[in-house]
Amino acid sequence: MFAIREFVGSTPGPRLLITGGVHGDEFEPIAVIQRLITGFSEKSELNGTLTLVPIVNEAAFLRGHRVAAEDGLDLARTFPGSADGSLTERVADQLAGMIQQSDFYIDLHTGGTEISVLPMTGYMLHSDESVLAKQRDMARAFGIPFIWGTSAGLDGRSMSAARDADVPAIYAEYLGSATCSDAGIEAYFDGCLNVMAAIGMLTDFVPKPVGEIEVVEDNSEASGHMQLCHPAPFAGLFYPEVELGESVSENAILGTVVDFTGETSGNIIAEKSGRVVVLRTFPRVREGDSCGVIA
Ligand SMILES: [Zn+2]
Question: What is the DSSP letter of 64?
Answer without folding.
Answer: T
